[in-house]
Amino acid sequence: MTIKLTSDEALVLSHWLEKLQMTDLSRVVDDPAVWAPIHRIAGTLDKSLAGLFAPDYDERLKRLSHVVSFASFL
């Protein structure tokens, strides 16, 4: 299976998945069978996104959160 994301979408999704993984997954995702795919997707994104370590990561993420959410409705 292939899922295509823009680099902006991937960065925003990676951040969201990181926040999700830092919570008690069982509170948010009630099916443990879903946890492994969530971790696999997050790991794949982390390996492929050089922007995660950019000095302006927080600023870029904040800007992209607005851009990506607006673009999804177009």
What do these coordinates show?
The chain is mostly helical. The chain has helices spanning 7-22, 25-28, 35-48, 57-71. α1 crosses α4. The protein is globular and about 35 Å long. The mean pLDDT is 83.
Topology:
Blueprint: H1 7-22, H2 25-28, H3 35-48, H4 57-71
Key attributes of the depicted protein:
single chain; mainly alpha; 0% strand
User: What is the averaged pLDDT score?
Assistant: 83
Q: Which value, in Å, is the CA radius of gyration? A: 13 Å
What level of helicity do the residues show? 55-70%
- List unreliable stretches of 5+ residues: none
Structural class: mainly alpha
Number of E-state strands:
0
Q: Please provide the ordered H/E string of secondary-structure elements.
A: HHHH
Summarize the structure.
This protein has 74 residues and is an all-alpha fold. It has 4 helices and no strands. α1 crosses α3 and α1 packs across α4.
